[in-house]
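Researcher: Please translate sequence to structure tokens.
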Amino acid sequence: MAEPVSCEHDIIPSCCRLESISEVSSVPGRREYKPPDFEFWHALNCLVHGIRIISTDYTVTFANDAFAGMAGTSVHEIVGRKCWGTFASSFCHTDGCILNRISRGESSVNYESRRTRPNGTGVYCRVSAFPLYSPEGQLIGIMESFRDTTRRRELQEQLDETEDRYRALVELGAEVGESILMLQDSPGREGIITFVSDQFCLMSGYSRQEIIGRPAFDFLAAEDRLSSLERHRAKMSGQSMPGLFEVTFTRKDGTTVPAELTSAVTQYKGKPANVIYLRDITSRKALEKALSSQRDKYQSLFEQAPTAIWEMDYSGVKQCIDSLLARGITDLKVYFDTHPDRALECLNLSRIIAVNRAALSLWEADSREAMCSGILSLLGTRPTGLARELDNIVAFARGSREVVYDIADPTFKGNWKHLHARYHLLPGHDDDWSRVLASFTDITLQKQAETQLKEYHSLLEETVSQRTGELNRASRALALEVEWRKQAQKKVRSLYKQEKRLRSELEHKIQQRIEFTRALVHELKTPLTPLLASCETLAARTADSSLRRMADTILAGGLAINQRIDELIDVAKGEIGMLEMEQENCDLAGIAGAVSDFMRAAFESKRQVLSVDIPPGPIPVFVDEKRIRQVMVNLLDNAYKYTPRGGRVRLKVYSAGSSAVVEVSDNGMGLSPQTLEELFTPYYAPPCKAGPSNGMGLGLALCRMLVDLHGGSIWANSDGQGSIFCFSIPCRDSASENPDN
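Model: Translation complete:
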């Protein structure tokens, strides 16, 4: 320590005491303080740390070269000025001022802050400040020691940034489904896992404890282990390897997962490490498979399309157009018209990538190669040359995505065809024009038809001119006929009035008939209902057989009258369109079997033989079961009536195509041709050889009406020896498909 010297201001730091500091002015207008002990101050000046002494009036009385270099200025610019004038801190002019804090009694102040140089650059400093006292113990200033920590801080920030990047890389890998492994070699063991990310634990199903310390190759499929080991060795030896390759690793549950990995060699805990980045590509493999399938579908559609299609690459054309536009050429149409060589050069940059079968057929080409290489030369033989293709390019350059036109093109065999062409720039290729689809439809026949139509139109105009003269002549004759028609119209109006009057009278008669029928039914049904009930009661309570037979006879007669009344009602309803049907899915064979069982007793009473021919399986129909049963009963009842005792009657049911047929045949007296024509007419009773008819002639008419409402038909045949009555109705499938049913 240097001996104290006298000076104008005695300063006693905490570690030393300074005396006899003399004031010397070396620069006019500026005060510098240099002590007589030059070696002491020279030692301070040689320190690598910056030293600055500040008096209690905030004036810098000393600064060494290290501080001046740190502050980015010179000692002469620092000494004699206020401390905040150079290398100011954020504490200046605040309660946190270092001089103020020491003045308040703090023994020392240590802090780190960022200072700004005059050129605007910043410096991080570690500052230690100590008080300076006079021999009398009075505070006369402070000494500050500055240590430049910028480099250390930069290194720390770089370290923090590296750690943040590494942490972010691991976290990002987890977010995007990428696993990270670190492999290191040890004596006798290769590819030992020393670090594993959480994502790999999720992907593999193993815990971290089950993974760390094991060779990474244990987790790979058997067929990938050797190649992966060789790649690891090459990486660790410093050889350059391809960036990505695919492996298959096995999960803990035994399932396999396709993965894509890359690696890089680094240092981990002071030793070389092969950092593996592993990504599960199961979804990508599925997408690749789906994409391959879509490509196959597209290729199939492309090949099998009935329309001729070219797939073209206009990327070279696009580059040519861009170069022309860059040169300031705005009207490409005019430019190509005046520079045909340049236009041909631009067209030759287009390439046909593929053509389908329809295109080969349309242009009569021998092969795809011949068509792709020779089509431009072929199209150049058109009267207009390749002008149409240039128009396509100009349209695309102006922003159009599709160009449509009609043109006549030659084929490779010299034939000419009229085509409807459509050039379409595919979405996603607006920037490079690398995918353009051109489709062509042969409209030769249409053009020929248009030509013929024009010729016909010309001929038609000539014919019209001729016919106009004839029409003028006919118009005069027409005027005469118009007059005649006026007279006829008067007569028609008179007849219409008469017809209207007759129609009104007929409607009135029909209404009277309806009211009469209702009244008649009411009058007949009213006394008949208690009569039938009484007969049933009498038959049930009478023990005498003769009286019982009489009661049964009366009951049968009443039921017959009731049936006739019901038939009369049904016919009347059918004639005025009020007969309703309640159709449902039924088995026609089952209905026929039930009807034959119901009628068998009646046939046995006359010793007639009723044979039934019904298929064993069901015949599905959509009918009103009650009405179809009524038709069958009426037909069997007629056969019963008109077949002599001991005769034969046959009921047959079968399917014929989409219809079901019911046939009732007998060996009775037969029907005449005249009778067959009127047989189904209401109120018609056929003549009977055994005596007068006992019916009203409504049964067969009602049968026809009911069959018609089912969408079927009914008919009868007779050769004079017996009769055959048949009706057919649609089967269920055909009936359900008929909207009229």
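Researcher: Any highlights?
Model: The chain has five domains: 12-148, 155-285, 305-442, 474-573, 580-737.
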